[in-house]
Amino acid sequence: MLASRAFSLIGKRAISTSICVRAHGHAGVVKAEDFSLPAYVDRRDVPLPEAAFVRDLSAQQKALKEKEKASWTALSVDEKVELYRIKFNETYAEMNKGSNEWKTVLGGVLFFLGVTGLILIWQKHYMYGPIPHTFSDEWLSMQTKRMLDMRINPVEGIAAQWDFEKNEWKK
């Protein structure tokens, strides 16, 4: 019984979502975008997009498109610009114009670098203890002397590079 109920719900769901997508909280139905139609895209490498920028023309724009079919010398500069804006969203100059986004990105990067630096300073000050005594120069010299006395790695290592007769490093 439970399985038949589950398959019934899944079947209804599959049928209802395959036809259209239901709106949340609304009685109406939202239609899915038709991606098989050409889309408008402003790109410098594609000078003529597949579709016009304005798809649904107003009455004024329709009248201007009818006027376009006649001689272009009868059109004013503003009408030519409006015709251009029906077909294209931006000119090449507007597409090539730089943006100030780099300032925001650089500011964000520098902000997070600063926060990271503050965290590192805080860690060094409050979390880590003092440097161990084994890092001091006198400890390292005593350790090296002991390694030489024990003749550690006499073939290719540290003892091979020490002249025991002259008590100095080989040249």
Counting DSSP E segments of at least 2 residues, the number of strands comes to 4
> How would you state the average pLDDT, rounded?
85
The separation of the N and C termini measures 92 Å
Work out the helix count.
Answer: 6
Topology:
Layout: H1 2-19, E1 21-22, E2 29-30, H2 59-68, H3 77-87, H4 92-96, H5 101-127, H6 137-149, E3 162-163, E4 168-169
Antiparallel strand pairs: 1-2, 3-4
Helix pairs in contact: 2-3
Describe this structure in words.
The protein is mainly alpha-helical and 171 residues long. 49% of the residues lie in helices and 5% in strands. It has helices at residues 2-19, 59-68, 77-87, 92-96, 101-127, 137-149; strands at 21-22, 29-30, 162-163, 168-169. It has a two-stranded antiparallel sheet with strand order 1-2. It is elongated.
